[in-house]
Amino acid sequence: MWCRRIFVTRTATLTLLAVTLFATGALAAPHETVLHSFVSEPWGSLVFDRSGNLYGTTAGGQGTFPFGTVFELTPKAGGGWTQKVLHIFGEGEDGQKPFSNLILDAVGNLYGTTSYGGSGECLDSNGKGCGVVFELSPEGDGNWTEKILYSFQGNDGSHPYSGVIFDAVGNLYGTTSTGGGDGQGCHFTGDAGCGTVFKLSPQAGGVWTEKVLHTFEPNNGNDGSIPEAALIFDRSGNLYGTTSSGGIASCTFGCGTAFKLSPQAGGVWKETILYRFGQNATDGVLPYGNLILDKEGKHLYGTTPDGGANNLGTLFELMPATGEGWAEKVLYNFGPTDGSYPFAGVVFDPAGNLFGTTVQGPGTSTSGTVFELSPTATGWKETVLHSFGQGTDGAQPYAGLVLDGSGSLLGTTIIGGADNLGTVFKLTP
């Protein structure tokens, strides 16, 4: 049903084959450690608390975890990590299938979304319910309590694949990949509406109210559609994000967009399309990952899992153009000998290097990579830091990376590991 699901089907066919390891020769890779092997597919990226514990979600799996979990990984004295399941999603009006990352507030509560479940009446082949925003709060006895902050109803958005972010006063913002429409299906999804940007505001008594800030309408002025990435704020309070389709019509349902939402008087938000992908034969298309701002807060960076000179994905930069509008520059074209299909966004280190993941490569391998892009006098140089798929290693990292205080990179894979249902990994320089 989903754009992401279509692409996963495309890659999963290759995954069923024997993994071909592509020799990278002289590349000096950092040391990789598998911190935990799952039985329930972690699709989202990780988040640290102040004590160095890691938190994340799994979207499903086997046995007692068919609807997904929230987990904690705690470092053990002397090495190793201990995993604890904080919440198992279930039936009724609970959420189901969290594909997103989590965020923490100042007192240690966790917030996230599930793509299905809740009280809404959405129904398709992947599950029922339109999805929820949830909060998990730690109790004094080591247990955690879940609270559903909001259940989407379809006309206000449905199926949020991305996580949420806070503003300075405690409101939550996010996207739904479909919904918000007038009853008409969006492209091939079958859901009414092509997605929304929403805001959740806390009220007295612990209630949260939702407001739709923007409804995507690709048939009205080439707007984007099906946003699956998280949002980011700039220093002025503007929101930025991507849509995985919509925009110009050079792709079947549009090649995707990068957009900006600016707050206006009276609580209205104005959308500006910064860039419509697919404007030439070698442009990237179908951005799924979130954007990131540079340290000056002026240029945006992101990835596309398709398109580019090799049709295997790109890393791009968006910058304000002279006069009006924004200009795009493709910084790197992935493949055919290195990683390919970068689904997630990228992260900066303090020196200005970019790090990210690809779900395939290098070469014909179906396992994926962790890569580094470093600025040089003549452009950007790519280095493959790790190639997945060796022994009980993970494979296919669809989520982005996080940096810890020592410069190590941590992330997740959706397959591989001891049970072939995903891992948490760490790359140590």
Keywords:
429 residues, mainly beta, four-stranded antiparallel beta sheet, 1 helix, 3% helix, 41% strand, disordered N terminus
Question: How is this structure best described in words?
Answer:
- It is built from one helix and 38 strands.
- The relative contact order is 0.13.
- With 429 residues, the protein is mainly β.
- It is globular.
- The chain has one helix spanning 3-15, and strands at 31-37, 47-48, 54-58, 69-75, 81-88, 95-96, 103-104, 110-114, 116-117, 123-124, 127-128, 132-138, 144-151, 165-166, 172-176, 196-202, 208-215, 224-225, 232-233, 239-243, 245-246, 257-263, 269-276, 284-285, 292-293, 300-304, 306-307, 314-320, 326-333, 347-348, 354-358, 369-376, 379-387, 394-395, 402-403, 409-413, 415-416, 423-428.
- A hairpin with a 5-residue loop joins strand 28 and strand 29 (326-333).
- The protein is 3% helix and 41% strand.
